[in-house]
Specification:
The complex is a heterodimer of chains A (115) and B (114).
Chain A (H helix, E strand, L loop, with lengths): L4 E3 L2 E4 L5 E6 L6 E7 L6 E7 L2 E5 L6 E5 L5 E5 L8 E8 L10 E2 L3 E5 L1
Parallel strand pairs in A: 2-11
Antiparallel strand pairs in A: 1-3, 3-8, 4-5, 4-9, 5-6, 7-8, 9-10, 9-11
Chain B lengths: L4 E3 L2 E5 L4 E6 L6 E7 L5 E7 L5 E4 L2 E5 L5 E6 L8 E12 L2 E6 L3 E6 L1
Parallel strand pairs in B: 2-11
Antiparallel strand pairs in B: 1-3, 3-8, 4-5, 4-9, 6-7, 7-8, 9-10, 9-11
Classes of the chains: A mainly beta (115), B mainly beta (114).
């Protein structure tokens, strides 16, 4: 049983560029949440997707957008990259019917470096 | 989600010593989750506490939820080098429109000296 898979694992971008990160949830899970984890910090909630809709959003600007596909996989897009966007981006899946956040299963993350 | 404060930020212990990390909130928490993140790894779920005064044990780990549901603690007895990592508490609070949001603390980084 595959867990949460994310791609790419590492990537380097320059300021102003755009990036797309991908996530496949754990089998049987229908809810995907994205988190940003800066070095030495706890994960910060970006948004959550269920039934292909954004259900919850954290305190992140509109440059951060996402999508969920019918197979429950998800993408995180970040436009107009800033140096401060450098972080580990974590995808987490759960089976919470989109509302109750139960136990989260995290992927290994995508390490984004913005130069 | 609510702001949860974790203390200490760092803890260095000799192998075999005990370790405790605390999670505090100024408001009542619905329930709280604990995660462990090994160096270079991703957070892994440890436990969820729901009831006031709840105590749960997992081998050498003991988790407590305060009576007022405003604080929680994780205690590790006789630490081992495998306990190294950052321990996060996360507030799982109803945030409106039928949804819950998980808000993580900044974590306590545990180092174990062999």
């Amino acid at each position: 049983d595959a867990g949460v898979t994310q791609s790419p694992t590492h990537l380097i971008k320059t300021r102003g560029q755009q990036v797309t990160l991908r996530c496949s949830p754990k089998s049987g899970h229908d809810t995907v949440s994205w988190y940003q984890q800066a070095l030495g910090q706890g994960p910060q909630f970006i948004f959550q997707y269920y039934e292909e809709e954004e259900r919850q959003r954290g305190n992140f600007p509109d440059r951060f957008s996402g999508h969920q596909f019918p197979n429950y996989s998800s993408e995180l897009n970040v436009n107009a990259l800033l140096l401060g966007d450098s972080a580990l981006y974590l995808c987490a899946s759960s089976q919470g019917r989109g509302y109750y956040t139960g136990e989260l299963f995290f992927g290994e993350g995508s390490r984004l470096t913005v130069l | 989600g609510q702001q949860v404060m974790q203390i200490p930020q760092y803890q260095h212990v000799q192998e075999g010593e005990d370790f405790t990390t605390y999670c505090n909130s100024s408001t009542t928490l619905s329930n709280i989750q604990w995660y462990k993140q090994r160096p270079g790894g991703h957070p892994v779920f440890l436990i969820q506490l729901v009831k006031s005064g709840e105590v749960k044990k997992q081998k050498r780990l003991t988790f407590q939820f305060g009576e007022a549901k405003k604080n929680s603690s994780l205690h590790i007895t006789a630490t081992q080098t495998t306990d190294v990592g950052t321990y996060f508490c996360a507030d799982n609070t109803y945030s409106g429109a039928g949804s819950y949001q998980l808000t993580f603390g900044k974590g306590t980084k545990l180092s174990v000296i062999p």
